[in-house]
């Protein structure tokens, strides 16, 4: 290699040939868009020396706290912290949560250096309570550092980023867990086939998704992780979601149709990621990742904040044993006139992760409360979200997940007005299962996220297209609120409406569901909001209606 200074911690015999100095030696790029394209294309991936220069530049430009530990701090404290211990026998900080240090072709000196750097970071960042991704970051940066002190400084700059709109690495269990929930929500929307497989073979699907960061920061081979990290430093945290989604898509493609034991699916994915070179190249992995038409950064931040808020409300801020989400619908105490336990569990696998820990609470039953829309509203008001289930006289079953409290209908002064958010969806269960989500999720070309106000744009980092306003937690802007998007017409955001004589779900060109005031008759058809097929016979008579809420297990 041309730059041995970068490799004093590396076992050269183990280094993968794909990270040799075979590529360009300089990067003369100043425009962000060009830099993003070069990172995605792997412009500096073939040059160990150039990658080191690019990392130096990108990390130097991260906005940090005024007092951020640098190389000189490391030199001052490392002797006192390490003492006379052998580097290889040094304990790892508690915040790595027993994560093993990836070897990444490091020699003995390099593996010991990672431990020393992590201990010094723990000393300088006492507020970090949970950060299992950090050993992988340090191990990778050590490849591109002259010495331990430089690697320490680079890592500190990543950790000390003080731009609220630029998230890099989770540093608390609350942030980590909400990221896992957010990833689960994204899988539910963008990898539905893989999600269906996970639900079928795992007792607790969120436990599987909670491993997503480990796939990237630990299981991915060095040359793959380095390619991901290249783009991550340029584009930010959203890249990690993209790559993890792509991994799950490839896993499903390879394993679909093969028998999977529920106890082993988590380990199966880890093994798949570790051996990913047998299936897909780094180029194809990134190509798949960026082909996913993901929510805007703003929407993902709002979803993350909503998940954090839900965890705080449940008192989950430190690591603890999680309840089996799959068992939120308990067979022994679940009773419905419309759906079975299995069907309700299938529906539960579709709902946002922040409500998946809740248990179903029957709010309204036409057989119990009567066939009255007024009584339906009375029973449902004050609950958000709700689940609507309908059974026709032909034994067809359909329904809707409704994101917003039905009391919102009162804001329209007695007139029929639409409200709700893009988290709403409609579905049918009988005669076959089909879910229809907001049309914008699968067809983002119909809209584009609204641009920032000029004052906000001036304050935003150059590589961020959106930032989330600093609203108080109790006024958190809803995830996928229609006002966040420039929609061509209102027909794409007609989620739910309720009047005295009818209830409507979905609008524009028709209605996904229309129910009369006596809960006696209904109709269904294609609508622009959900781009759905009829959910049952187009004109139907109602046998039963139920509305379900979401109850925190601790409040029972």
From TrEMBL:
Primary location: membrane
A GO term from the CC aspect: presynapse
A biological process term (GO) from this entry: neuron projection development
Pfam families: RabGAP-TBC, TLD
Entry membrane topology: Peripheral membrane protein
GO molecular function, one term: GTPase activator activity
Domain TLDc: residue ranges: 337-551
SMART domains named in the record: TBC, TLDc
Compartments reported by the entry: Cell membrane; Cytoplasmic vesicle membrane; Presynapse
Lineage top rank: taxon: Eukaryota
Annotated keywords: Cell membrane, Cell projection, Cytoplasm, Cytoplasmic vesicle, GTPase activation, Membrane, Phosphoprotein, Synapse
PANTHER family for this protein: GTPASE-ACTIVATING PROTEIN SKYWALKER, NUCLEOLAR PROTEIN 7/ESTROGEN RECEPTOR COACTIVATOR-RELATED
The protein's role, per its UniProt record: May act as a GTPase-activating protein for Rab family protein(s). Involved in neuronal projections development, probably through a negative modulation of ARF6 function. Involved in the regulation of synaptic vesicle trafficking.
SUBUNIT field: Interacts with ARF6.
Protein name, per record: TBC1 domain family member 24
The species this protein was found in: Phodopus roborovskii
Gene for this chain: Tbc1d24
């Amino acid at each position: 290699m041309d730059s041995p200074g970068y490799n004093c911690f590396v076992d050269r015999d183990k280094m993968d040939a794909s990270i040799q100095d075979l590529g360009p030696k300089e990067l003369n790029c100043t425009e962000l868009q060009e830099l993003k394209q070069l990172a995605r294309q792997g412009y500096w991936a073939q040059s160990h020396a150039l990658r080191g220069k690019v990392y130096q530049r990108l990390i130097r430009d991260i906005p940090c706290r005024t007092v951020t530990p640098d190389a000189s701090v490391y030199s001052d404290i490392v002797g006192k912290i390490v003492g006379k211990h052998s580097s290889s026998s040094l304990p790892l900080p508690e915040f790595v949560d027993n994560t093993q240090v990836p070897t990444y072709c490091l020699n003995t000196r390099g593996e010991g250096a990672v431990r020393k750097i992590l201990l010094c970071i723990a000393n300088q960042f006492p507020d970090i309570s949970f950060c299992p991704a950090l050993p992988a970051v340090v191990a990778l940066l050590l490849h591109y550092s002259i010495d331990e002190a430089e690697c320490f400084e680079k890592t500190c700059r990543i950790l000390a980023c003080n731009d609220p709109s630029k998230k890099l690495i989770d540093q608390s269990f609350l942030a980590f867990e909400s990221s896992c929930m957010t990833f689960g929500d994204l899988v539910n929307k963008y990898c539905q086939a893989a999600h269906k497989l996970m639900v079928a073979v795992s007792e607790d699907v969120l436990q599987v998704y909670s491993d997503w960061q480990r796939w990237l920061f630990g299981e991915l081979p060095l040359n793959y992780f380095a390619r991901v990290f290249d783009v991550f430093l340029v584009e930010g945290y959203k890249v990690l979601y993209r790559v993890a989604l792509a991994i799950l898509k490839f896993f499903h493609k390879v394993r679909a149709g093969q028998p999977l034991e529920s106890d082993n699916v988590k380990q199966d994915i880890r093994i798949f990621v570790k051996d990913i070179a047998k299936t897909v190249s780094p180029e194809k992995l990134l190509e798949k990742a960026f082909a996913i038409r993901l929510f805007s950064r703003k929407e993902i931040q709002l979803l993350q904040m909503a998940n954090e808020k839900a965890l705080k409300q449940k008192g989950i801020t430190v690591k603890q044993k999680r309840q089996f989400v799959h068992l939120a619908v308990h067979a022994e105490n679940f009773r419905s006139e419309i759906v079975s336990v299995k069907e309700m569990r299938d529906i539960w696998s579709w709902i946002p992760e922040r409500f998946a820990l809740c248990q179903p609470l029957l709010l309204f039953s036409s057989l119990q409360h009567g066939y009255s829309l007024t009584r339906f509203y009375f029973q449902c008001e004050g609950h958000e979200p709700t689940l609507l289930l309908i059974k026709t006289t032909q034994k067809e079953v359909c329904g809707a997940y409704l994101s917003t409290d039905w009391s919102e209908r009162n804001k329209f002064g007695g007139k029929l007005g639409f409200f709700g958010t893009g988290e709403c969806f409609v579905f049918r269960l009988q005669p076959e299962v089909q879910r229809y989500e907001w049309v914008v999720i699968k067809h983002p070309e119909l809209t584009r996220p609204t641009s920032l106000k000029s004052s906000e744009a001036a304050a935003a980092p150059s590589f961020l297209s959106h930032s989330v306003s600093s609203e108080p937690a109790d006024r958190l802007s809803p995830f996928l609120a229609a006002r966040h998007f420039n929609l061509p017409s209102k027909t794409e955001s007609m989620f739910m409406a309720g009047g005295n004589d009818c209830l409507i779900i979905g609008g524009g060109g028709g209605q996904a569901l229309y129910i009369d005031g006596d809960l006696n008759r209904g109709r269904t058809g294609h609508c622009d909001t959900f781009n759905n097929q009829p959910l049952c016979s187009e004109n139907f008579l109602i046998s039963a209606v139920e509305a379900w809420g979401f109850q925190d297990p601790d409040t029972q």
